[in-house]
Each structure stands twice: as C-alpha cells, then as structure tokens.
Amino acid sequence: MTGALAAAYRSGSQRARVVTESWGESNLYCPNCSSPKLTWLEPGHPASDYSCPKCKFWFQLKSQKSSIGDNITDGAYAAMMNAIRHDELPSFYFMQYDLLTWSVRNLLLVPHFAFPLSAIIKRKPLSRTARRAGWVGCNFALNRIPGSARIPVVSEGAISPPAEVRQRYHLARKQVEGLTVKQRGWRLDVLRVIQSLGKAEFTTTDAYIFERELEQSHPDNRNIKAKIRQQLQALRDRNLLLHVGRNCWRLP
User: pLDDT per residue over 9-37, tens digit each?
Assistant: First the structure.
C-alpha cells in the first residue's frame, strides 16, 4: 500500500482509512462479474466504499491491524438489520494490514447475500453520559456465516487467483439463489451448522444437535427438526449436498 498518503493526517483511523481505501481502488475487483476494478466512492457515502462500474454491485472495505477473528465491529444495529431484511447490504472485504510495512496480510470476501440475521450481534446501548447516549451498535459474527461464503482473497500475503475467488463467489450465490431473505436465513444457518461438523459425511441426527441453536435464531418456528430436514433436501435438490443413504448425507 502507499503509506505516504498517511502523512497528511494525524488521526490513526483517518490514516488507515485513506491508505487502505486507496489500495482498494487500485487492487480490488468485482467477484460478481469480470470487472478488474471497483470505483472508489466519495468519503461518507452511505453503507459503501466502492461500486462495480459494470454490474453496479456495492462493496465496503473494513480494515484493521489485528487478525480477522469471529467478531468484527460495525455500525448501527437497526440499520444493519434493516439492510439485510430489504436485501440492501453491500458485500464486504475484511482486511488485516501490517502497519509497519503498510502491506495487506489477509483479505476476506463475504458476499452480501451470505449474511443471515443471526450473524448480526446487538451491542449494549451507549451509556447516558456518552455523546450518543442510547445508541446501539452491532458486531458481525463471522463464525455464523457458512465457511463456503467466507472467501479468502489474500491469506498471509498469498494471493488467491481472481478466477478461483469468482468461482467460490458464484458457488456461494447458487446456495441461496431465488430465495426470499427469510428463506435465505434458514438456508445459510443450516448450511453453516452442517459445515461446522467437520465431516465429509454426516447424518440427519448429527444436524439435530443444532436444534436449540437454530431455535434461538428462529423463535417463530415451532418445528425445528422438520425445517432442518427440509433444508437438507433443498440443498440436495441444488446438488449442494449428496444423499448417500437413509438419513445420511455427504458434502460435495
């Protein structure tokens, strides 16, 4: 990255923002189409940092010095939930950078369609003495997003080929294509839990282990086991899961 851009700023957050977003303008590409570049939007543009000049998809870059863990701090909780419910969320690039060398260590892509409501964690309201007293923020729980939708673009300095990134992006999109936001949430949550089993083959009973967790994410549903079975069959119908025997499944 061009660290010299930071010289004009005193604030650490402003320095990081200018340097990383400038790098994004030169290096980020659209995973949804063949565009090799993204357009850097004016600072303060609501919800997004870049747009694709070809397919018009929006993207946001979130950068930090620390490693990319399970939780990423974001903005207002209500706005984030509303964006997911109305399918208005941008796709996110999550970056870890090295401040000493101004270089990219890790870069993770999570498509906009891969965020279930269960991945948005509500933070406590700001105290009454805070400047924005009562304001409620949120965190992204990346561990509540299916592993297949957490797409590495840079891993410890090693760059993934754009063709591979786009292939993984389109496979992740196929998992939820044609679904409403509510249906998508169920699909993503079930896909995540079965991937978290860490098994190539698993049983329906294995999936039932997550009944209580899914019940908490979907309190309006009274028959969680039936919903799990429905989602397993739907994944099978899209060739995203193989049915290898009675109540036995295999991830491709």
Answer: 989 889 999 999 999 999 999 999 999 99
Question: At residue 67, does pLDDT exceed 90?
Answer: yes
Domain for residue 167, yes or no?
no
Domain identity same for 62 and 87: yes
CATH number of 92's domain: 3.40.210.30
Structure tokens at 58: 């929006």
Q: What is the CATH number of the domain that holds 249?
A: 1.10.10.10
Instruction: Give the list of residues 6+ apart from residue 202 with CB closer than 8 angstroms, or none.
Output: 194, 248, 249, 250, 251
- List the beta strands (DSSP E) in 77-161: 91-98, 103-110, 120-122, 137-141, 151-155, 158-159
Q: Kindly report, residue by residue over 203-228, the tens digit of the pLDDT.
A: 999 999 999 999 999 998 889 999 99
Question: If residue 18 lies in a helix (H) or strand (E), which one and from where to where?
Answer: helix 12-27
73 and 184 share a domain? no
**Which residues does 190 contact at the CB level (< 8 Å), separation at least 6?**
207, 214, 227, 228, 231, 232, 235
